[in-house]
Amino acid sequence: MLKRIGRVCRPLLAVALALILALAPVSAVWARSGGRIGGGSFRSPTFSAPRSIGPRSAPVYPSYGGGFGFPLVVPFFWGGGGGLLTLLLLIGAGSFLVRSLRSAVSEDGEDGVGDPLVTVAQVKVGLLASARQLQKEINALALESDTQSPEGLSQLLQNVSLSLMRYSDYWAYGHAQVEKLPLPRAESLFYQASLQERSKFSAETLTNRNNQIQQVPQAALKRAAAGIPDVGEYLVVTLLVAYRGNLGTLPVVNSVAELRQCLMQLAAIPAERIVAIEVLWTPQLEGDTLSAEALLTEYPEMRLL
User: Fold this and answer.
1) What is the pTM of this model?
2) For the chain, which residues make up each domain, given as ranges?
3) Helix, strand, or coil here: 64?
4) How far apart are CA 124 and CA 176, in angstroms?
């Protein structure tokens, strides 16, 4: 008897669910629409094979009579008059030069032995949904930005950071973290963080990856009826930036001032150091917003400002 009732009820439940989805506002069906802008590559020519710091053969210079070459060393031992002291001074100068070269290599993002070092920074900003114009600005950047060149990515990073700082009055939550890792681990962390953020979207409705733009027509996702009140309260913008070298740590975000400092530091990264960038924001669709419950559930790391 129960099985027979179950067989009868299943089609009715399916029809009821279909009606609910069909009659529900599009903003509820497509909850948490998301956008993504990004570019760059961890396999660019910038990261060629690491330079080895091992023993190398000494350069051989031509010797013509009293010119440069082996005869230059002979007077140190057979010429008398302070030859040993001169040799020690040359050894000391050579050691200093080697240390200086290694230090310069380290500052440029190499660990001197293995893979180049890459810093991965994440900054997240939770804003009140009344910051409607910010959605429009980031949507416009997604359609206009050059995401294929380091200069274009640097400009994108500056524009998004500036847009966010202009809406600092709407900031409610924030988070920042930074890690410096060898290239393979940095690449893994970067794309894991990207996938984690993208998994929070029900649909990616606007993307620009390496100048490849994909957009879901707004008309297909607009509200089913006019005058339906907003169902959410927040917007979230996430910046993922991978860059060579170490340009300083980001502060722990507990205040608006600290979050502003994080954005300013990211915006100041030189274009030639940028490896990859992704800007992810949700909701992407105008009129679609994020509920407080969803924000606290999906972004537990964010702190109230």
Assistant:
1) 0.68
2) 25-46+116-304, 70-107
3) coil
4) 6
